[in-house]
């Protein structure tokens, strides 16, 4: 770790750059206790700004273990620059209005490259379709009986399409639903964007196929996941995967997540394709009804022993709330509004500064209620709760010398970069709802951390920044392990620092005891820090759309 830090400039900047009129800050790693003079130097070696650093009062910063200063660069004109502070310097960076446009495009293209059952013709990433999944059996046998006692389904199902979830070849409803919900949400920023719509439809079509059809056991629910009975070889292309694909038992949570995502799809796509929206609404209604008939059919935690992640969740109250929210927004049905208002989640605060994820979906529900639920009986209270949650993130961010609105005392979680982005989505929606530019400024500042202004001095997005992640853990982009395979594509977000060992996966001993921000390895075998995931790239698409178009 120390040799990595020694190779990186001590002045840490957003290596992509900064937006005109938004905050521009850098972080200097130094043991100096007093302020230091710094200069901003244009590409032609002309000094355009001089300033004085602000020593950070907390020494060392607990998230990084480093002593640092903060440099304020606000007001720089458009151009390309670098920083000098004493003998230290920064990477080059730009100031420009559409810095995030290419990042947005690459982050969205990531989903195309992860399509299951589709020929990929993107230059450099061409491959035949993998996993047609047109005739997948429900899982049977001793292991299935142990995991799902009493369940038996002798059917074979077409569950083709959708996106691979992460570096593996599994497809999971509870992960895939929140990812497509966030891409649909990007249409609030970019209405009618054809590329976003096309990707969303690819995933929504798959979700519809995961719903158990009428006449079959547990009809109306959704199969929880589909993948091999053993883990696919690492590395390896999807069309060469030798594993046997099976469907895992339907679950209450999968049905509720399908209902939420399909209802959101119906709302967003109704004006452009009423017939398709009707299909989505019908599926959402039936999934919600089935989940209410089977309220406690939960996915067990099988410790990822059977070829895929469990995506388990023991509490369905927030899932019911999210599904009812999206169905009410899509249909106006007063029954769903009543379910919202009587939910204990509606009375609670869903905004945790540790970030939301697939197993904590009260925040996604509240975001859409604040943005779209103007007819709700207590909409003013909903907006107030959003503002309060966003204000907590503003306060947290102001106490970080790196600009990230995330610093959980209990440790940085697996996929911390995704959680940071989800907090940026909360701030971004607060801006859309209230018009307050302080929240938009916070979104811009929060991206600094992801793009290089962090303890490691690296961008976590492949292809964006001078020192960026190159070696994510992924099967099909496994060039590090097999030179015949392509490398991770531009726009792929690494999971990021993870200081909390999980019981289900091996933790790298080199990371134990390090400050949270340093718990990351840009290595193709670091699953707990360097995997990729659709749930992390989706908010990256949302945030970059906001910063490009606002």
From TrEMBL:
Under CDD domains, the record lists: E_set_Cellulase_N
Q: Which UniProt keywords apply?
A: Carbohydrate metabolism, Glycosidase, Hydrolase, Polysaccharide degradation
Q: Which domain of life is it from?
A: Bacteria
Would I find DNA-binding among this entry's keywords? Answer: no
Molecular function (GO) terms for this protein are: hydrolase activity
Segments forming domain Cellulase Ig-like: 8-89
The entry assigns this protein to a family as follows:
Belongs to the glycosyl hydrolase 9 (cellulase E) family.
According to UniProt, the name of this protein is: Glycoside hydrolase family 9 protein
Which species does the entry assign this protein to?
Cellulomonas wangleii
């Amino acid at each position: 770790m120390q040799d990595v830090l020694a190779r990186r400039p001590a002045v840490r900047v957003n290596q992509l750059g900064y937006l005109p009129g938004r905050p521009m800050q850098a972080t200097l790693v130094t043991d100096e206790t007093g302020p230091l003079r710094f200069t901003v130097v244009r590409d032609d070696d002309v000094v355009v700004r001089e300033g004085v650093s602000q020593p950070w009062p907390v020494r060392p910063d607990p998230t990084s273990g480093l002593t640092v200063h903060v440099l304020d660069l606000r007001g720089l004109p458009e151009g390309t620059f670098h920083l000098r502070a004493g003998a230290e310097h920064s990477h080059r960076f730009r100031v420009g209005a559409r810095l995030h446009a290419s990042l947005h495009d690459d982050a969205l293209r990531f989903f195309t490259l992860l399509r299951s059952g589709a020929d990929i013709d993107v230059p450099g990433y061409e491959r035949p379709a993998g996993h047609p999944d047109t005739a997948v059996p429900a899982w049977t046998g001793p292991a299935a009986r142990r995991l799902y006692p009493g369940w038996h389904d002798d059917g074979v199902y077409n569950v083709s399409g959708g996106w691979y979830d992460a570096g593996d070849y599994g497809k999971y409803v509870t992960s895939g639903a929140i990812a497509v919900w966030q891409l649909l949400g990007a249409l609030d920023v970019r209405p009618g964007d054809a590329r976003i719509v096309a990707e969303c439809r690819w995933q929504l079509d798959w979700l519809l196929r995961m719903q158990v059809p009428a006449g079959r056991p547990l009809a109306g629910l959704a199969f929880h996941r589909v993948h091999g009975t053993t883990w696919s070889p690492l590395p390896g292309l999807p069309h060469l995967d030798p594993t046997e694909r099976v469907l895992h038992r339907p679950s209450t949570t999968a049905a509720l997540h399908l209902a939420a995502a399909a209802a959101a799809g119906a709302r967003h796509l109704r004006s452009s394709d009423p017939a398709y929206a009707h299909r989505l609404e019908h599926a959402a209604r039936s999934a919600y009804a089935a989940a209410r008939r089977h309220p406690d059919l939960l996915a067990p935690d099988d410790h990822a022993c059977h070829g895929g992640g469990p995506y388990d969740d023991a509490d369905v109250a927030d899932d019911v709330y999210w599904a009812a929210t999206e169905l009410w927004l899509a249909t106006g049905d007063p029954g769903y509004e009543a379910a919202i208002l009587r939910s204990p989640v509606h009375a609670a605060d869903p905004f945790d500064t540790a970030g939301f994820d697939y197993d904590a979906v009260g925040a996604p529900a509240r975001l859409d209620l604040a943005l779209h639920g103007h007819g709700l009986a207590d909409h003013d209270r909903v907006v107030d709760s959003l503002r309060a949650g966003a204000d907590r993130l503003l306060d947290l961010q102001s106490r970080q010398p790196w600009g990230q609105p995330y610093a959980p005392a209990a440790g940085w979680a697996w996929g911390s970069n995704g959680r940071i982005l989800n907090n940026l989505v909360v701030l971004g929606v607060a801006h859309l709802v209230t018009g307050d530019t302080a929240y938009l400024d916070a979104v811009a500042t929060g991206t600094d951390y992801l793009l290089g202004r962090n303890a490691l001095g690296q961008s976590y997005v492949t292809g964006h920044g001078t020192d960026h992640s190159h070696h994510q853990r992924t099967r099909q982009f496994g060039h590090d392990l097999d030179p015949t395979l392509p490398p991770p594509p531009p726009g792929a977000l690494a999971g990021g620092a993870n200081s909390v060992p999980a019981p289900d996966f091996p933790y790298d001993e080199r990371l134990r005891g390090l400050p949270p921000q340093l718990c990351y390895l840009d290595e193709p075998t670091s699953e707990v820090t360097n995997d990729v995931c659709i749930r992390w790239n989706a908010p990256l698409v949302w945030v970059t759309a906001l910063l490009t178009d606002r």
